[in-house]
Amino acid sequence: MSDGILVVGYGNSARSDDGIGWHVAQRLSVDPLVPELAYDISAAAVAVFIDATTSLPPGQIGVERLRPLERTGGPLSHHVNPATLMALSNQLYGRAAEGYIVSCGVQSVELGDRLSSAGEAALPMVVEAVAELVWRGATG
Fold it and tell me: Which residues pair with 15 in a beta bridge?
């Protein structure tokens, strides 16, 4: 039986908007994206990943349901992507949480620990999108 909700913010916190996941995570207090999270994903009902993307316009939010890969595809490094992490959870523990990725379009990935104006403006909307997924997962 699975319960609980796992929220993971990741990205490069030293590259402006690429750190949006870290900024949201700071507000929601979660751990970084590492293979060791596979166990947490197997035990959770819902896993929400937060990251920056260049495939959306700056500041635009996207929410996508994740499907785990069938296999991890090879040796793992210290960092993995969400679909690989969910596949690892399936391989090691026989299940993975219902997964989602909340993405935010980047305006800048220049060196810096502050979000761009678009990233800063989008931050509350990303937090709200994550909170909505968490609420839906908690209420089933």
Answer: 112
Average pLDDT over residues 109-120: 89
Total tally of structural domains belonging to the chain: 1
pLDDT tens figures, 1-35: 456 777 778 888 888 888 888 877 776 664 456 67
Q: Is pLDDT at 87 greater than 70 in this prediction?
A: yes
Give whole-number Cα distances, 29 to 40, 55, 89, 133, in Å: 15, 26, 22, 16
The long-range contacts involving 129-132, CB below 8 angstroms and separated by at least 24 positions, are 129/61, 129/63, 129/102, 130/7, 130/24, 130/28, 130/48, 130/50, 130/102
- Give the amino acid at 131: A
d(CA 137, CA 5): 7
